[in-house]
Amino acid sequence: MSHWPDDFTVQGAHVLVVPLCKDHESDLKEAAADGELHRLWYTTIPTPDGVGAEIERRLALRDSGTMLPFAIIDKARGQAVGMTTYMNIDAGNKRVEIGSTWYRKAVQRGPLNTECKLLLLQYAFETLGCIAVEFRTHFMNHQSRSGIERLGAKLDGILRSHSVADNGTLRDTAVYSIIASEWPTVKAHLTWQMEKPR
User: What mean pLDDT value characterizes the chain?
Assistant: First the structure.
């Protein structure tokens, strides 16, 4: 059964974003072990031993049409260093959320995340004709919120007591979006971020 959007691959100078599959499990187990990111209480990142189950979960959501999961390949390393998705897919209204994203610690704060988001946003707006792309994160995840704001997304609001976290705490979810009319400015900003002298 086919779901919108169809599988696709995008690549830039630093990153290759490909449909997630079981073949990525070994690389992603190594990535999940880098920095013990699963210990962060305000986000959901699999343990190294839980990577296989997380791949299966995301692929099942693909089968249901609510998610299109990707592996993020660091072209310099030649291996998968994280995961991301189009999720909460709304084909009728041409909306997606870019979320459930994580990277191994060694590649954080480098060009991979910016380029990955640029490529996925460009595909959403320019190929799929999306009217909006959403981002959601835990209110307490300041690193994620800062990253989303650096992209040029605007805060739509806070969903208070939105869900119950694995540790029993209540999650307030910060909801951001970029709408189609903002895309040219956001694209210029992200392109400059990638091209500016370092």
Answer: 92
Quick check: is 3 in a domain? Answer: no
User: Does residue 1 fall inside a structural domain?
Assistant: no
Domains in the chain: how many in total? 1
Note the pLDDT tens digit of each residue in 176-193: 999 999 999 999 999 998
Return the ∠ at Cα 175 (arms to 169 and 179), rounded to 5°: 165
pTM over 0.85: yes
